[in-house]
Amino acid sequence: MSDNEQQIYMQISNKIKEKYLDAQITNQKLSINQTKYPAVSIVLTNNSVLSQYSTFDQIESVCNEVFEFEVANSHESGMSDVKAILMIIDEQMNEFGYLRIQQGLIEDKEINDIRRLAKYEKLITK
């Protein structure tokens, strides 16, 4: 099984911390009642084998990894920090060879901050 989660988490966390020393970065989904900002979640949401590329012995040769990034900030600080953090994430994920497949606002009446979600995907061959 391919697993790049730790490497991606560490490198992106370090890059974000270079500019945002007080950022809260986690490998789990952000809480609805987030209190520390800016906040970033880095989660590997899919690591599936593409069966059409498996060997006859069902040994995986290609897998699909999808990472999900959630970035939150308070209304007082605004969207500019959220977008700047997403730019850092985008640059790093491009370096790793991942393609951004989604980016947009998270709109939920229960959430009282500004949030954006970005997803990145890559097919990995062994």
DSSP helical segment count: 2
Main sheet record: 5 strands, mixed
Task: Report the C-alpha radius of gyration, rounded.
Answer: 16 Å
**Oligomeric status of the shown chains?**
single chain
Distance between the termini: 9 Å
What is the CATH architecture descriptor? 2-Layer Sandwich
Give the overall shape, derived from the CA principal axes: elongated
Strand tally: 5
Superfamily (CATH H level) name: Phage minor tail protein U
Mean pLDDT: 89
Structure class:
alpha+beta
Tell me the series of helices and strands, N- to C-terminal.
HEEEHEE
The fraction of residues in strands falls at 35-45%
* Overall helicity: 25-40%
In CATH's first tier, which class applies?
Alpha Beta
In short:
The chain is of the alpha+beta class. The chain has 2 helices and 5 strands, in the order H-E-E-E-H-E-E.
Give a written overview of the molecule.
By secondary structure, this protein is an alpha+beta fold. The protein has one domain (5-125): Phage minor tail protein U (Alpha-Beta Plaits, 2-Layer Sandwich), CATH 3.30.70. The protein contains two helices and five strands; from the N terminus they run αβββαββ. It has helices at 5-19, 79-95; strands spanning 24-26, 39-49, 62-73, 99-105, 114-125. It has a five-stranded mixed β-sheet with strand order 1-2-3-5-4. A hairpin with an 8-residue loop joins strand 4 and strand 5 (114-125). Helix 1 (5-19) crosses helix 2 (79-95). The longest helix is centred in the C-terminal third of the chain and has 17 residues, at 79-95. The mean pLDDT is 89.
